[in-house]
Specification:
The longest helix is centred in the middle third of the chain and has 24 residues. A five-stranded parallel β-sheet has the order 2-1-3-6-7, sandwiched between helices. The radius of gyration is 18 Å and the shape is globular. Helix 4 packs parallel to helix 8 and helix 6 packs across helix 8. It has two domains: 122 residues, Response regulator (Rossmann fold), CATH 3.40.50; 106 residues, Orthogonal Bundle (Arc Repressor Mutant, subunit A). It is an alpha/beta fold and 238 residues long. Strand 6, helix 4 and strand 7 form a beta-alpha-beta unit. It is built from eight helices and 15 strands. Helices cover 39% and strands 23% of the residues.
């Protein structure tokens, strides 16, 4: 069955353009113009991907990501007229899998949504087939298949699909310096990356989730001029 995409967009012309572009490419779509109705339907029938505008009559679409309304395993893509670097970084830092600025070329929109869906599918399939899907490091246990982190004190934190892919790239190469290019290649491919600071934003977001107690060593350390290094030893369980 074709992927189901939820579109949260209050501009009628833009929503029609997106609906037509996605339907022509075989996607199933449902369009919402209010946060409240979107959230109700999300609880009833989760989609394969959410396409979210930021400026809405009854709130800011960014709140859907920051409040963790959507399950972490559902990819979410922001489509908005807010084009500043700051807005893009904030959107990616809080959990968006991609950030598309209006006006956009419909063919590029479809291609980028396909790329997000493809990455999410590959990640799910790889982890389902991988007997080493649970990693232990420092005070954390990461269940990559479930997209979760569990702290030694019992706290459980959800990860988005992009955060899980990024963490896995570090877990597979502890003690090695990984450049932005290495991380982009490992997580999604540079051709889909809107700008260089995207990776910095995603690492910043992951770091905040991996914060431990006072006096505990930094888990992801910046190596200035070279990239990043995962400082902890990693053990795997199946």
């Amino acid at each position: 069955m074709s992927a189901l995409i939820y579109l949260l967009e209050d501009d009628l012309d833009i929503s029609r353009l997106i609906e037509r572009s996605l339907t022509q490419q075989g996607f199933r779509t449902r369009t919402f113009r209010r946060l409240a109705e979107f959230e109700r339907e999300l609880r009833r029938q989760p989609p394969d991907l959410c396409l979210i505008d930021l400026s809405l009559p009854d709130g800011d679409g960014l709140s859907l990501v920051t409040r963790n309304v959507m399950p972490d395993t559902i990819p979410r893509v922001i489509v908005t007229g807010r084009a500043s670097v700051t807005d893009r970084v904030v959107g990616l830092e809080v959990g968006a899998d991609d950030y598309i600025v209006k006006p956009f070329e419909p063919r590029e929109l479809v291609a980028r949504l396909r790329a997000v869906l493809r990455r999410a599918s590959i990640t799910r399939e790889a982890r389902a087939a991988d007997g080493r899907a649970v990693a232990v490091f420092g005070c954390w246990t990461a269940d990559l298949a479930a997209c979760t982190l569990t702290h030694a004190d019992g706290r459980r934190i959800g990860l988005s699909s992009s955060e899980t892919s990024l963490l896995e790239a570090f877990l597979r190469a502890p003690g090695r310096v990984l450049s932005r290019s290495n991380l982009l290649d490992a997580t999604q491919g540079r051709s889909n990356e809107p700008f260089d600071r995207t990776m910095d934003a995603r690492i910043s977001r992951l770091r905040r989730k991996l914060e431990c107690g006072p006096g505990e060593a930094e888990i992801i350390r910046t190596v200035y001029g070279a990239g990043y290094i995962f400082t902890h030893d990693v053990s795997w369980t199946g």
